[in-house]
Every structure is written in C-alpha cells, then in structure tokens.
C-alpha cells in the first residue's frame, strides 16, 4: 500500500551538497495517525545504516551522529515528500540512499534499520575526492 520513490542523487565533489527527495504515496495521515519516514544509506560492501528520521505527528527528527550538523531532514506535506539535504559531503557519504516508512514514531529506527516496514528503490550518491 505504501510506495516510496527516491530522487535527487548524483555525482558531487567533496564538500558539495545535494537535496534528496522521497515521494510517498498510497496512504494518508488518516490511514496512520502516527508514522515516520527515515533515510538510510548503503555503501558498497557495507551494511545499510540509518541516517535520519522524521515523525509525522510533531516533526521530531533524529540523526545519526555521523551526519549531525551536515544533513537536514524535512517534510513537505503539500507535496507528500520528505527531503534530505546533504551538505559538506565526504567520500565516505557515498552510497545508495533509501527512504523508508514505519508506523509510529521514529523511535530508534535510525539505529535499527530493521524497524522500517516499507522501502524505496534508492538513489545513488557518489562523492568524489
């Protein structure tokens, strides 16, 4: 029922920025009184890790320590999107970035990707040196 589509990835030089977008469809806030959208990433040969999360009820956000101060997650209810602004990019930020849906609060979804219930296909972010 829930569909997520990521976009906005690309090739960028270290220190640059991108704005990733997650378009959500197939549900409304009336379907799930409380839900959360998280951003995750997976580097080549590495496990998927949480990056950020935002809760629908109050807009509360959560970030991985590795991206605090550099990445910003935000929601646009009019467009049914959740964006992730990635700044001061480093080569180690390279990977496929996914957004995911979970009923309820963000909780510890950033720390525990397995808590996510629905996933998008991902968008590639490549940071060159």
Q: What are the key terms here?
A:
129 residues, mainly beta, seven-stranded mixed beta sheet, four-stranded antiparallel beta sheet, 11 strands, globular
Topology diagram in text:
Layout lengths: L2 E5 L2 E4 L4 E8 L9 E8 L6 E7 L5 E3 L7 E6 L4 E6 L8 E9 L14 E2 L3 E6 L1
Parallel strand pairs: 2-11
Antiparallel strand pairs: 1-3, 3-8, 4-5, 4-9, 5-6, 7-8, 9-10, 9-11
Question: How would you portray this structure in words?
Answer:
This protein is mostly beta strands. The protein is built from no helices and eleven strands. Strands 2, 4, 5, 6, 9, 10 and 11 form a seven-stranded mixed beta sheet that branches. Strands 1-3-8-7 form a four-stranded antiparallel beta sheet, with no helix packed on it. The model has no long low-confidence stretch (mean pLDDT 94).
Report Rg. Answer: 14 Å
Number of strands: 11
Round the mean pLDDT to the nearest integer and report it.
94
Order of SSEs, N→C?
EEEEEEEEEEE
How large is the count of helical segments? Answer: 0
Principal-axes shape call = globular
SS strand fraction = over 45%
The biggest beta sheet is recorded as: 7 strands, mixed
- Binned, the helix content reads under 10%
Structural class: mainly beta
**Uncertain runs:** none
Distance linking N and C termini? 40 Å
